[in-house]
Amino acid sequence: MQALNAAAQQSRGGALAMALEGRPARPSDNRRMQAFHSDRHLLPLPPGHRFPRSKYRLLRERVAGFPDLVANEAAAASDAQLTLVHDADYVRAVSNGTLGAAEQRAIGFPWSEEMVERSRRSVGATIAAARAALVDGVAANLAGGTHHAAAGRGSGYCVFNDVAVAARVLQAEAGRRVVVDLDVHQGDGTAAIFAGDASVFTISLHGAKNFPFRKATSDLDVALADGCGDADYLAALDGALALLAREHAARPFGLAFYLAGADPHEGDRLGRLKVSASGLLQRDRRVLAALGEQRIPVALTMAGGYGHDLDVTVSIQAATIAAAIDAWREWNRREPSTRHAGDSAVAALG
Question: Are 16 and 319 in contact (CB under 8 A)?
């Protein structure tokens, strides 16, 4: 928390500083950045399960008072949307509760109606965030980033691949899309889904020796050694962002998806890296600044975060949302929209 407070002071009145100092919201007008959530459908998990199911509610509650942010409950993704990416038989098996025991073990959750509804709404939240980003420049899903799910299977706490579905739903509106996956685990499902698809460019920075142990091939994979700290991590990120800029110059991106995982943090149970909270905030600001400078709208998802101290994980992800609000302000300062928050919310949910 010391690192986040120090970063807040450096932000000179930005959303992060205001949030941490407890200052009241002072929006310049009645427009606010759109965020979407799906945490009201709580997974029924056995005692001792290591998935941090309360993280999403805690994050929503933490950011509820942030300046210039409105959080909407997401609608559920439809079968028609899900089957743009996922096999119809797999979608039916998830929906009807006919997944086999091995399939449930691969996902990491026992089947339940709550699992189905939460998973559909998490995809719906990323679709809504992507639509809002096309209007307002920056928007967020307060969960999502379920990047291990492939076309015909789930894996690693991922039932449906929200980013892949949203990318396909928005294909006609957004044109070429880029996925910037900074979860500590490689986005193998996303890479496999878009293999050979030139309309989606996939970037993944991840732990070389971490899950999944059999990696897929992204358009750019940057494998990081165990114990990687701030300097090496940010240098690797700068290289990836430089390639993104070259790709954008050659064939522009119309929309970005940013998976802002908290699990590269040094206190994460599953991360194996040593990136500080301050380093992760620098990461977020660099990604958002690079996209903003190139006028690429971005939908954020929170992806992984499994801290020994759950409050630290929530603080890191709240700082990501605060950085996104600052990026949203900058986007709209440079090119003010004539639409209001309610308009983009209706467009996102429609």
Answer: yes
| Whole-number Å distance between alpha carbons of 73 and 92 | 24
Alpha-carbon span 38 to 193, nearest angstrom: 24
pLDDT band of residue 229 (cuts 50, 70, 90) is very high
Q: What span, in angstroms and rounded, lies between the C-alpha atoms of 208 and 216?
A: 12
Q: Give the Cβ contact number of residue 313 at 10 Å.
A: 26
Of 92, 90, 174, nearest in space to 127 by CA:
174
Long-range residue pairs from 8-11, CB within 8 A, at least 24 positions apart, any chain? 11/326
- Torsions phi, psi for 139 (to 5 deg): -155, 170
Measured CA to CA, the distance from residue 310 to residue 74 in angstroms comes to: 24
Using a cut of 0.85, tell me whether the model's pTM lies above it: yes
**205 forms bridges with which residues in the sheet?**
222
Q: What's the rounded Cα separation, in Å, for the pair 216 and 297?
A: 26
Q: Are 334 and 174 in contact (CB under 8 A)?
A: no
DSSP state of 219: S
- What ranges do the domains of the chain cover? 2-349
Number of H helices, E strands in the chain: 14, 8
Superfamily of domain 2-349: Histone deacetylase domain (3.40.800.20)
State the pLDDT at residue 148: 97
Check: CB of residue 301 under 8 Å from CB of residue 343. Answer: no
d(CA 349, CA 301): 17
Q: Cα-flanking dihedrals φ and ψ of residue 181, to 5°?
A: -105, 105
Neighbours of 172 (CB within 10 A): 7
Cis peptide before 47 (omega within 30 of 0): no
